[in-house]
Structures are given as structure tokens and as C-alpha cells.
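dumping this here before i forget
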Amino acid sequence: MTKIIPPAPVLITGGARRIGLALAESLLRQGIPVIVSYRQYYPALDTLASLGAHCIQADFSDNRGIYAFAEQVKAYSGKLRAIIHNASAWVAESVETPPEDTMAAMLQIHVYTPYLLNLALEPCLRDQGHAAADIIHITDFAVEKGSKKHIAYAASKAALDNMTRSFARKLAPDVKVNAIAPALILFNEQDDEEYRRHVLNKTLMKIEPGEMEIVDLVNYLFKSRYVTGQTLGLDGGRCLR
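structure:
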């Protein structure tokens, strides 16, 4: 009798809301197991758990928390189908916060966290076949354009973008490593009409596309056997303005 081996789970950092939540729900509907990290409780976590997701509270604000999370992941599953680095913080420079603290916080979540998790969980991604696993870094269109109000944020995302190519070289051909660089995907509930018009006018496509744009692009990358080391823009043409 042939033993059926269940598929390896996809790890999504920051999977309790917005894009991370949409990705988790989509993968679960496809029958793909999911591990999500979350910093604080959201009601959606109960829904994810009911659908079969394994939810792990994580504190990525220091390296000890990153390593502790990696150990919990390895204890739960010896193999991973993919890691999607979605956890992020959008922090602007301000007179209330010393600039070195702002930069340190941005580097911690956008550089140290994916860097250390990729290295710690590399054995879970390896040895599953040619191009059988993926790492996807969620970066930002500001990597190319910069940002006068979010300098540390843009710089940290640029470092993550560069790591995409380094890890692609390191992990090939077992693991494909790519980045998705979005601009406007989904407004926040508190965004007023004037702000929404202002942001929409920065794009060529003039729409709020929604989370499925990210979901569809992730599915494409998962299906590909050849795309690696690439940054795929998802900004409605905003990079051209």
C-alpha cells in the first residue's frame, strides 16, 4: 500500500491580517498546509486555526525571538514548501524618535528577520527536488524610488531586495528565491477620501487592486520551475510616474 505523504507547509510571517491573511486563506483552500506567525492577536487567527493553519506567536524585535520562532517551526515540520516574508512595519522618521532607533527597527524586521530565518530554516527547504521550494520576499516599490518620509523603511526594503539575489544564488537549484515589490494594494480603513484620491492619482492604473493581485503572483511563482533571483513589480505603473 502506497503511503501518502502530506504536502509540506508554507510559512507566512505576519499572516494574521491583510495580505498575509489573504495568502494564508488562499493556500488553505488549495489544500496546502500553512504556518503563520503573528505578533498580536487578531480574530482572524481563530478562523485560520479552524481551517487548519498552525499559528505561532512570534516576537521578531530581537534576534533571540527570531531563533526561538525558527525552532518552533522546525519542531512542527521538518520540511517547508515555502517561506513568504510578509511581516513588515511602515515607520516614518519623526522628531519624537531618535533616527538610529527608527533605522534599527526597520533593519530588524525587514533585514535581520528574513536573513536569519532563511539561514535557520534552509534545511527545511532543501532536498525536496529541483525548484521544489520557494522563498518570497515582500519588498516595496520604494526600493527603486526612495522615500523622503520613510528613509529607513525604504533602505531596509532595499537590503531585503538585494538579499533576494544573494539567496537565489546560494540556494539554487533546490529553492527559487524572488521578491514582490508592491505599491498600493489595499487601503487602510481609516484612509479618508482625499488621501485615497491622492494615492490613486500616483498610479497609472487608477485602482485599488486588492490582495488577490499578490495571491495570484505568489501562485505563479510557486508554479514556475525557472524564475529565480527576480523582483516582480506590482505597483500599477507607479514606478513610472
